[in-house]
Amino acid sequence: MKKRVQILALASLLGCSAAMAEVNVELEHDIHVIAINGESLGFTLLKDSDLELKNGVNQLVVRIEKLITSEYGEKEKYNSVPVIITFDASDLNLQLSASKNIKNVKESVVFNKNPIFILKEPQTKTGLLVKQSILPSAGGFTRDYELEIARYNVKNNIALSDMSAAVLEVKNKDKIQTVESESGINTVAMVEHWYSKASGEDKEEFTELAFQSRKNNINLDDENNSKALDMMVHWYNESTTEQKKNVISWLFEQ
Question: How many beta carbons lie within 10 A of that of residue 11, not counting itself?
Fold first, then answer.
Protein backbone atom coordinates (compact mmCIF):
# COMPACT_ATOMS: atom_id res chain seq x y z
CA MET A 1 0.00 0.00 0.00
CA LYS A 2 2.84 2.36 0.90
CA LYS A 3 4.52 1.66 -2.45
CA ARG A 4 1.26 2.43 -4.29
CA VAL A 5 0.94 5.79 -2.49
CA GLN A 6 4.53 6.67 -3.43
CA ILE A 7 3.87 5.86 -7.10
CA LEU A 8 0.70 7.98 -7.11
CA ALA A 9 2.57 10.87 -5.49
CA LEU A 10 5.36 10.62 -8.06
CA ALA A 11 2.84 10.54 -10.91
CA SER A 12 1.11 13.58 -9.47
CA LEU A 13 4.43 15.43 -9.19
CA LEU A 14 5.38 14.59 -12.77
CA GLY A 15 1.95 15.70 -13.94
CA CYS A 16 2.34 19.05 -12.21
CA SER A 17 5.81 19.52 -13.71
CA ALA A 18 4.49 18.82 -17.21
CA ALA A 19 1.61 21.25 -16.69
CA MET A 20 3.97 23.99 -15.60
CA ALA A 21 6.45 23.53 -18.46
CA GLU A 22 5.06 26.65 -20.05
CA VAL A 23 4.18 30.28 -19.40
CA ASN A 24 0.53 31.17 -18.84
CA VAL A 25 -0.53 34.79 -19.31
CA GLU A 26 -3.89 35.98 -18.06
CA LEU A 27 -5.09 39.10 -19.86
CA GLU A 28 -6.95 42.01 -18.37
CA HIS A 29 -10.44 42.30 -19.83
CA ASP A 30 -9.80 45.25 -22.20
CA ILE A 31 -6.47 44.03 -23.57
CA HIS A 32 -6.56 42.78 -27.16
CA VAL A 33 -3.72 40.63 -28.51
CA ILE A 34 -2.66 41.61 -32.05
CA ALA A 35 0.27 39.22 -32.52
CA ILE A 36 2.08 36.45 -30.68
CA ASN A 37 5.77 35.79 -31.38
CA GLY A 38 5.74 37.54 -34.73
CA GLU A 39 2.52 35.95 -36.00
CA SER A 40 -0.43 38.28 -36.53
CA LEU A 41 -3.72 36.91 -35.22
CA GLY A 42 -5.72 38.80 -37.85
CA PHE A 43 -9.36 39.74 -37.37
CA THR A 44 -11.18 37.70 -34.77
CA LEU A 45 -14.30 38.13 -32.67
CA LEU A 46 -12.89 35.87 -29.99
CA LYS A 47 -11.40 37.44 -26.89
CA ASP A 48 -8.90 35.09 -25.24
CA SER A 49 -8.42 35.72 -21.54
CA ASP A 50 -5.52 33.30 -21.14
CA LEU A 51 -2.46 32.58 -23.31
CA GLU A 52 -0.21 29.52 -23.17
CA LEU A 53 3.35 30.21 -24.34
CA LYS A 54 6.51 28.14 -24.45
CA ASN A 55 9.23 28.73 -21.89
CA GLY A 56 11.88 31.25 -22.95
CA VAL A 57 11.78 34.57 -24.75
CA ASN A 58 8.28 35.48 -25.92
CA GLN A 59 6.77 38.54 -27.51
CA LEU A 60 3.27 40.01 -27.60
CA VAL A 61 1.81 42.95 -29.47
CA VAL A 62 -1.19 44.27 -27.58
CA ARG A 63 -3.43 47.30 -27.30
CA ILE A 64 -6.40 48.43 -25.25
CA GLU A 65 -9.83 48.17 -26.88
CA LYS A 66 -12.74 49.55 -24.91
CA LEU A 67 -15.56 52.09 -24.78
CA ILE A 68 -14.64 55.41 -23.20
CA THR A 69 -16.48 58.67 -22.54
CA SER A 70 -16.07 61.38 -25.18
CA GLU A 71 -15.77 65.08 -24.38
CA TYR A 72 -19.52 65.35 -25.07
CA GLY A 73 -20.41 62.64 -22.57
CA GLU A 74 -21.13 59.97 -25.17
CA LYS A 75 -19.57 56.53 -25.44
CA GLU A 76 -17.02 55.95 -28.21
CA LYS A 77 -14.67 53.13 -29.19
CA TYR A 78 -11.04 53.55 -28.20
CA ASN A 79 -8.13 51.57 -29.62
CA SER A 80 -4.79 52.46 -28.10
CA VAL A 81 -1.52 52.47 -30.02
CA PRO A 82 -0.04 48.95 -30.37
CA VAL A 83 2.69 48.10 -27.88
CA ILE A 84 5.27 45.35 -28.43
CA ILE A 85 6.32 43.54 -25.25
CA THR A 86 9.28 41.15 -25.07
CA PHE A 87 9.99 39.07 -21.97
CA ASP A 88 11.90 36.01 -20.79
CA ALA A 89 10.06 33.64 -18.44
CA SER A 90 9.77 29.96 -17.59
CA ASP A 91 7.17 27.95 -15.68
CA LEU A 92 5.20 30.98 -14.52
CA ASN A 93 1.60 32.09 -14.27
CA LEU A 94 1.49 35.79 -15.17
CA GLN A 95 -1.05 38.58 -15.45
CA LEU A 96 -0.92 41.35 -18.06
CA SER A 97 -2.67 44.64 -17.32
CA ALA A 98 -2.53 48.27 -18.37
CA SER A 99 -0.82 50.71 -16.02
CA LYS A 100 -3.94 52.88 -15.95
CA ASN A 101 -7.69 52.36 -16.20
CA ILE A 102 -8.66 54.64 -19.09
CA LYS A 103 -12.16 56.06 -18.80
CA ASN A 104 -12.27 59.14 -21.06
CA VAL A 105 -10.69 60.80 -24.10
CA LYS A 106 -8.31 62.95 -22.05
CA GLU A 107 -6.87 59.88 -20.33
CA SER A 108 -6.61 58.02 -23.66
CA VAL A 109 -4.51 60.81 -25.18
CA VAL A 110 -2.11 60.70 -22.22
CA PHE A 111 -1.85 56.91 -22.38
CA ASN A 112 -1.14 56.89 -26.12
CA LYS A 113 1.87 59.15 -25.55
CA ASN A 114 3.40 56.76 -23.02
CA PRO A 115 1.57 53.42 -22.98
CA ILE A 116 2.77 51.06 -20.26
CA PHE A 117 1.64 47.50 -19.58
CA ILE A 118 2.49 45.54 -16.45
CA LEU A 119 3.35 41.85 -16.57
CA LYS A 120 3.64 40.18 -13.18
CA GLU A 121 2.90 37.15 -11.08
CA PRO A 122 -0.46 37.45 -9.27
CA GLN A 123 1.07 37.24 -5.78
CA THR A 124 3.78 39.84 -6.36
CA LYS A 125 3.62 43.63 -6.35
CA THR A 126 6.51 44.30 -8.74
CA GLY A 127 6.28 43.55 -12.43
CA LEU A 128 8.46 41.22 -14.47
CA LEU A 129 11.38 42.84 -16.29
CA VAL A 130 10.20 43.39 -19.87
CA LYS A 131 11.19 45.38 -22.92
CA GLN A 132 8.23 47.33 -24.25
CA SER A 133 7.67 50.19 -26.66
CA ILE A 134 5.20 51.50 -29.21
CA LEU A 135 5.41 49.34 -32.34
CA PRO A 136 6.58 51.63 -35.18
CA SER A 137 4.30 51.67 -38.21
CA ALA A 138 5.63 50.60 -41.59
CA GLY A 139 3.43 53.22 -43.25
CA GLY A 140 0.57 52.70 -45.67
CA PHE A 141 -3.20 52.72 -45.19
CA THR A 142 -3.27 49.48 -43.16
CA ARG A 143 -0.87 48.02 -40.63
CA ASP A 144 1.33 45.10 -41.67
CA TYR A 145 2.10 43.84 -38.18
CA GLU A 146 4.28 40.90 -39.21
CA LEU A 147 6.50 43.18 -41.28
CA GLU A 148 6.66 45.77 -38.49
CA ILE A 149 7.53 43.13 -35.88
CA ALA A 150 10.23 41.63 -38.11
CA ARG A 151 11.79 45.07 -38.62
CA TYR A 152 11.63 45.80 -34.90
CA ASN A 153 13.29 42.52 -33.97
CA VAL A 154 16.06 42.90 -36.53
CA LYS A 155 16.76 46.46 -35.43
CA ASN A 156 16.81 45.50 -31.74
CA ASN A 157 18.63 42.18 -32.23
CA ILE A 158 15.83 40.16 -30.65
CA ALA A 159 15.63 36.40 -31.14
CA LEU A 160 12.49 34.66 -29.90
CA SER A 161 12.30 31.13 -28.51
CA ASP A 162 9.17 30.21 -30.48
CA MET A 163 9.80 31.81 -33.86
CA SER A 164 12.16 31.30 -36.79
CA ALA A 165 12.72 35.04 -36.88
CA ALA A 166 15.02 36.99 -39.17
CA VAL A 167 18.32 37.61 -37.44
CA LEU A 168 21.12 40.10 -37.84
CA GLU A 169 23.72 37.54 -38.90
CA VAL A 170 23.39 35.25 -41.91
CA LYS A 171 25.58 32.30 -42.92
CA ASN A 172 27.01 32.45 -46.39
CA LYS A 173 29.58 29.87 -47.57
CA ASP A 174 30.57 28.85 -44.01
CA LYS A 175 31.32 32.46 -43.12
CA ILE A 176 29.15 34.62 -40.90
CA GLN A 177 28.59 38.03 -42.38
CA THR A 178 26.75 41.00 -40.96
CA VAL A 179 24.99 42.79 -43.80
CA GLU A 180 22.82 45.85 -43.37
CA SER A 181 21.03 48.08 -45.85
CA GLU A 182 21.18 51.86 -45.75
CA SER A 183 18.07 51.84 -43.52
CA GLY A 184 19.91 49.66 -40.97
CA ILE A 185 17.76 46.60 -41.72
CA ASN A 186 19.36 43.30 -42.67
CA THR A 187 17.56 42.71 -45.97
CA VAL A 188 19.29 39.37 -46.64
CA ALA A 189 17.98 37.97 -43.37
CA MET A 190 14.51 39.31 -44.19
CA VAL A 191 14.55 37.50 -47.55
CA GLU A 192 15.58 34.29 -45.77
CA HIS A 193 12.83 34.78 -43.18
CA TRP A 194 10.06 35.08 -45.78
CA TYR A 195 11.60 32.30 -47.89
CA SER A 196 11.12 29.97 -44.91
CA LYS A 197 7.41 30.85 -44.87
CA ALA A 198 6.91 30.49 -48.65
CA SER A 199 5.38 27.55 -50.49
CA GLY A 200 7.50 25.40 -52.80
CA GLU A 201 5.96 27.11 -55.83
CA ASP A 202 6.73 30.58 -54.48
CA LYS A 203 10.30 29.57 -53.66
CA GLU A 204 10.84 28.38 -57.24
CA GLU A 205 9.30 31.53 -58.70
CA PHE A 206 11.35 33.86 -56.49
CA THR A 207 14.57 31.95 -57.23
CA GLU A 208 13.95 32.23 -60.98
CA LEU A 209 13.12 35.95 -60.71
CA ALA A 210 16.24 36.65 -58.63
CA PHE A 211 18.50 34.79 -61.08
CA GLN A 212 16.99 36.70 -64.00
CA SER A 213 17.23 40.10 -62.32
CA ARG A 214 20.67 39.68 -60.74
CA LYS A 215 21.70 43.24 -59.80
CA ASN A 216 18.40 44.82 -60.84
CA ASN A 217 15.10 45.04 -59.02
CA ILE A 218 12.38 42.47 -59.60
CA ASN A 219 9.13 43.60 -61.22
CA LEU A 220 6.01 41.63 -60.26
CA ASP A 221 3.12 42.03 -62.69
CA ASP A 222 0.57 39.81 -60.93
CA GLU A 223 -1.27 41.56 -58.09
CA ASN A 224 -2.57 38.27 -56.67
CA ASN A 225 0.74 37.04 -55.33
CA SER A 226 1.11 35.45 -51.92
CA LYS A 227 2.31 37.60 -49.04
CA ALA A 228 5.53 35.57 -48.74
CA LEU A 229 6.42 36.14 -52.41
CA ASP A 230 5.60 39.84 -52.19
CA MET A 231 7.80 40.24 -49.11
CA MET A 232 10.74 38.32 -50.62
CA VAL A 233 10.60 40.57 -53.68
CA HIS A 234 10.19 43.67 -51.50
CA TRP A 235 13.31 42.93 -49.42
CA TYR A 236 15.29 41.86 -52.50
CA ASN A 237 14.49 45.22 -54.11
CA GLU A 238 15.47 47.02 -50.90
CA SER A 239 18.89 45.34 -51.02
CA THR A 240 22.10 46.87 -52.24
CA THR A 241 23.98 45.29 -55.16
CA GLU A 242 26.23 43.43 -52.74
CA GLN A 243 23.26 42.17 -50.76
CA LYS A 244 21.58 40.93 -53.95
CA LYS A 245 24.73 38.92 -54.66
CA ASN A 246 24.53 37.41 -51.18
CA VAL A 247 20.88 36.47 -51.70
CA ILE A 248 21.64 34.77 -55.03
CA SER A 249 24.61 32.91 -53.49
CA TRP A 250 22.35 31.75 -50.67
CA LEU A 251 19.67 30.60 -53.15
CA PHE A 252 22.28 28.50 -54.98
CA GLU A 253 22.82 26.56 -51.75
CA GLN A 254 19.13 25.77 -51.20
Answer: 10
